[in-house]
Design a protein that fits this description.
heterodimer; A: mainly beta; Immunoglobulin-like; C8orf32 fold; eight-stranded mixed beta sheet; B: alpha+beta; 3 domains; 10 helices; 38 strands; 18% helix; globular
Chain lengths: 692, 630
Amino acid sequence: MICENKITHPKVDSMKCFRIQLVFMFTFCMLMAAAQKKREKLQFGRITAQDFKPAQYSIDSAADAVVLYNAGSSGYEGNSNGFFSVNYEQHSRIRLMHKNGFDAATVTIPLYISNDYQTKLVSLEAATFNLENGQVVETKLDKSALFTEVAKDITTYKFTYPNIKEGSIVEFHIKVILPGYSFMPDWDFQKKYPVLYSEYEVNVPYFFNYAIIKQGLQNYIIDTGTEVHQRYYIHEKGKSAAESGTTVAVSTQAVQHIWAMKDVPAFHPQKYMTSPDNYISAIQFQLSEIRMPEQDVEKLAQSWSKISEKLLKDPDFGLELNYNNNWLKDDIKTATANAINDLEKAQGIFAFVRDHYSCNDYRSRFLSAPLKKITQSKKGNVADINILLTAMLKQAGLEAYPVILSTRDHEKVLQNYPVMRKFNYVIARLFLNDENYYLDASRKNIGFNQLPVDCYNGFARVINDKEPLLIRFDADSVKEYQMDIVHVQPDAANRALNVVFNKSFGNFESQDVRNEITAASLDAYSKKLQKQFNVPVQIKDMHADNLKDLDEPLKLQYTAAFSFNPDDDLIYFNPILQDRMVDNPFKAESRIYPVEMPNCMNSTYLLDMDVPEGYVVDELPKSARVQLNEKEGSFEYLIVNKNNHIQMRCRLVLNKANFEPDDYGTLRDFYAFIVQKESEQIVLKKKVATRP
Amino acid sequence: MKFLFLLSFCMCWINNNAQSLDVHLIPDSITANAVVRYDNTIVTIENENKVVVRHNYAITVLNQKGDDYAVYTNIYDQLNTLSDISGALFDASGKRLRSMKKKDVDDAPVNDNMSLVRDDRKKSYDFYYRSYPYTVVFNDEEVHSQTFQLPNWQPVPGSDISIQQSSFNVTFPSDLSINYKVLQKEMLHFDSAIVNNTKTYTWQLNLKKSFQREPFQPNVFQTDPFVFITLPKFKLQNYTGSMQSWQSFGEFITQLNAGRNVLPDNIKQQVHLLTDNLQTQQQKIATLYQYLQKNTRYINIALGIGGWQPFDCKYVADNKYGDCKALSNFMVALLKEAGIKANYVLISATDRHLPMWKDFPCGYFNHATVCVPNGKDSIWLECTSATASPGYASHFTDDRDALMITDSGGIIVHTPIYSIHDNQQNKIVHAIIDESGNMQAQVHTRYTGQASDDIHELLNVGIPEKVQQYYNQSFNLPTYTVQHIQLAEQKSIIPVVNESFDITVNGFAAVTGKRLFIKPNIFNKWELKLLPDETRKYSIVLKENFLHTDTVFIIIPNGYEIESLPKPQSIHTIFGDYAIRFMYSNHQIEVVRYQTGIKQELPASEYAKLVEFFNSMYQNDHAQVVLKKA
C-alpha cells in the first residue's frame, strides 16, 4: 500500500531580476542632467542637529548602525612618471545607533604596497560628531591614533573613532593614489549595515576602455555615462637631476560614469550559499582596451583565444608546457613503471604527483615558482601542482591541458567574457581514447578523474592553443551515490539485536571520511560513530574497503549489538538506525536568495530484519512516496513484513542542487516530510502464548 | 682566512647534529606522530637589561598528523627582538635535504581578532615536506631588553608528540640570583653549577612518551612540566621593580600606574552630578559603573610598554575607549572621586591561562579588573563589558586568586565563588500535541548567575531580528517556528534573566498508524556520552556548579491512551544528582527533572562512575512515551 503525495507549490512567475550584467565603459545610457538632479552631495563635516533627529531609520528600524552616505570616485590623472595614475577618493558617513554597531567605528584601509607598486594614502580626515545640549560637537581623529600594520604586499591603515556613543555620527574622507593605469577600484553598494545612499563616480579618458560587471538584486537610481572633454597634465622627469622635466597637456574625450543606489538593505551571508560575493550589490571593473593615439588598439581581454595564447606564453602559467621537459623523465619513469597502457600511465603520473607534493595554497591561478623549483621543494600552490601534472602528462606523450576555474567560496565565472580575477584555481584535463578526464592532484584523498566539491561552481576554461573550450562543472550535474545496507539478526539468548552495517560512500563523502580517518584512525572513527547512536551500542570489527584505493568509493563494514529485553511485551524500533534526518536543514521560514547545495543526491538505505522469536509485528510505518516539483527529487519509504521478515527501502533522490528562492517553501516542506517519515517506528508485540 | 674558518665552523655544527638525526635512533618506546629529538634552550641573563635566549631544536615527523610540529614560529616585538633564524630539513636517514631560505621566512603581524593594533609580529617557516619520516632542525636567538617577563620553558609542545631529550639552561652572573617555579618537578632532572662567577641551572626532560587527551582532564599546568623564572630585581624600560614578593610586585604596578589616574575636570563634575545625591555606596558604585559602560568601549592597543601600562584617565575621557587596564584604572579614579576606595586588580582570566601562584610572584597576568574591597561583600567590576551586572564575575574571572594593587603594595585576593544555588536554570514547559504529532508549547525559563552567561550575551548582543534568527536555528527539533520571544534581565550581584517564547513544532511526535511516539523531555536533554576508559590517567576536572529544574506538561490528543511510560530514575553521585519522573493523568503527561553539577577535581579512579552517570542521564533524558489510539 503506497500513498502518493506530491509536494508542489503553485509557481509564481519569478521576477526577472538580473544578478550579473556586463557592460562597457563607452556606452551611454542616460542624460546627465536628469541624473544630476537625483544626486546627493554632502560635504565633510557639514553636520547639523537635524542629522541626529531620526531615532531609527525606516529602511531597518532595528539596525545597529546605518550608513548615511557612502560616495566614492576614481579618476585618471597625469602623473610625474610620464603616464597616468588613478586617484581614488571615498567619503563615508555612518550613524551609530546601538553599541552592537560600534564595530562600524573601526576603519581599516588595506592598500597594496609592494616594491614595484606603491599605493599611497595621500590624505585622511576623520571625525566623530555628537549632539551635546543641542550643539553639534566635533572630535577629530588624532594623527597619532592612525596605526599601520605591515604585512607582505599589504599595508593596512587602521583607526577607531574617538569619543563615540550611541547616536554618534562618524565620518571619514580619504584620498588614495594608485600608481598604475590598469586597475580601477571596485565598489560595494551593499554592506553589513543598511546604506541610505551610495554612489560611485568614475572618470576615464578615451585611452582606456573597461568592462564593467554589475551584480546584485538592488536597483540603481542613477546609472549614467556621459562624454566629457578633459585635459590631463603628464609630467616626464628629466633624464638627470639637473635637467628639468617636461609637462605635456593632453586634451581628450573622456567618459564620466555615475552609479548610485538608495536604501540598500544590509547583507547577511546564509547557509547553502556559495560566495556572498556573488550576491552583494557591487560593481567591478576590468581594463579591456588601451587606445593610445597613433597606435593600434591594444585589446587586453576580449577573446578567449587571445587570452589562452597569452597564458600559454606566460612564464607564470603555461610557458613551460611548450618546452621539452626532459628533466622530468626520471620521475615519469618511476611513476609509470608498471603501466601497460596510456591510461595506466596517466593514472601513475597523477598518483605520483598527488602523493609526493603538498599544496600550501588552494587559491591561485599562477605559478609561484618555475616548475623545476617546485619539483625540488615538493610543495606549491594548486596551480604549481596541477600545471606540473599537466607538464608530466605531456612529457609522457599524452594530451593534457590546464583548466582554470573558480571555487565555490569564490566569485562565479562569467560565461563568455574573460574576467581573469574571477578565476582562482587550476586543474588538468587529459584527453585519451576519445575521453576527457579531469584531474586535481593537489588534494591528498582524491582519486583519478575526481574533483573536490569546491570545483563545482559553474564555468571553467580549458587553456589550449586552439579555441579555448568553455566547460561547466555544475553542482546540478554531479550526483553523490550513497548506499547503506543494514541487516538485523535477533539474538534472544544474548538479549541483543545484532546489526551488520555495510556503507558505501559517494565520491565527496569518501574524500571527507578518508581525510578524517587519515587524520585520526579507523578506531577513532569507529568510536565517533558509536557515540552517534542514542542508545548504548558497541561498534565492533570495523573494516574499510578502498581506504587506500582512492579511485574507488570508500566502503565501511561494521557490526553493532543493540540491547533488547525479550521479557518486554512491546518493542519499539526505528528502522533507520543511523544518520537519520532529525531536523530540517532549512530552518528559516523564507528566503530571498537561491539555495545552492553542493551536489545532487541519490542515497539509499536498505534494511532487512528478522522479527525476534516470540514477537509479531503490531504496527509498521506506512509506505510513502513523494515527488519534489515533478522530477526534481523524490523520497520513498517502502516497508513490508512477510512472514515475520521486515524489509525496507528508504531512498532520497535530488536531481538538482540549485533552487530558486521561489522553490524554497517547497524544498522546506519536502525535507519536513522526510524528517517526519524517518522518525516513525516499528512496534513489535509479544505473541500471546497459546495454551495447548 | 677568518671567513674560511667561520664557514668550516658552520659546516661542522650542522654535521654534528645531523649525525644523530637518523630516525632509527628513536627508541621504540616513544614512537608517536612526531618526536622532539633534542630541544635546547639556553638563557643567558647578562644583566637587568639584557637576556639572550638561544634555541636549537630538532623534530622528527613520523606521519601526516605530526606535520604541524615541523612549522617554525616565533614572536617578537620592540622589547624582545628575534634574529639568526636558521633551519634545515633531513630525510629519514638523517641526510640533509635543504636549508631554510631567509627570504622565505614569513613575517606577519600577530592578529588576535580582538586588538585594534599590536606591535608584536610573528615569523614562521614551513618546509612543507611530506615524505615520512623527516626531520627539521631550527635555531634562533632572541634578545630581550627587559627582565620583567623572563622566558619560560614548556618542553611538551602537545599531547601527540614524544620527547627524546629537552633541556632548559639558565646562566646568570653569580652576584644576581633568580627565583624559579617548577611544575611537575618529578618528571625533570635538575643540575646547578658555578664556573667563573657565573651560575648555571639546568633542567632536563628525557624520554617522555606522547599521551592521549582525555575528556575533563586538568589543564596543561597540572599535567605537563614547566619552568618559570624571574629576576628578583628587574627592569622594564625606565622602571625598576622587585619580584621578591607579591607585595613588592604590587608596588611596581603602582609605580607604572602613577600619575595616570587624574580625571579631567569635566569628568569630575560629572561624577559629582551623578552621585552626590545618592544615599548608599552601592548605588554610587552601580551608577558610576553604568556611566563607564555607557560612555566607553573596549579597544585594545598593545604597543611597547602599553602592554603593561594603562593609558591615563584623560586618554580614556577624550577617546571614550581603552583596554582592560585603561578602563579599570579609569573606573578606580571615578570611584575615588565619589569618595569610594577601590583597587586596580591584576588577574589571570579564563581557565586556559596560567594561574597565579601564591608562592611565586611573576608578571604573567592577562587581564585587569576592579575590586571595591569589603571582605566577603567585596564588589567586582568587569570594566571591558558594556553589559555585565555590577559585582558579577562570569566564567572569565570567577573563583581564583588575583593581585589587588593597594597603597601598600600587592595583596592576594580571591574572586567570587558561585554555588549550585547561585547558578540555576528553572524551566517550565506547557505543551499540547495534536493527532498528527504537531506540538505547540509555551516555554518559560529563569536563568541565574553563571547559568545566565550565554543568554546574557544573546540578550545584549541581539537586535530582535537576530534573536529571532538565533531561536529559529538553535534547537535540535524537526521543522519549527519560534515566536513571541521575551527576554528580561535583572542586573544584580547574581544576575537573573527571564526568558519566554512560544514554539510550534511540526512532526514533533512520530506517528505510526495508531501510535504516537513522544520524547517528552523536550528542551533539556543531556547530550554528552562518554566511552569507558580502563586506562584513565588524569584526574577529572568538573568546572561548574549548577542546578537545573525542569517541569514539562504535555496535553495529549483525545482518544489516545498511554501504552508505555518510562520508568523514573534517581541517581545520587559525587559528581551531582539527577532525578527524572514521568507521570500521566487526565490526558496530560508530566515530566519532572532535577540535575546538579558540582565543581571539583576527582581522582581518575572515579571515571567509570562518571561514564555511567552521564550515559544514564543521556538515556533517561531521551526516553520516549508511547501513546496508542484507544
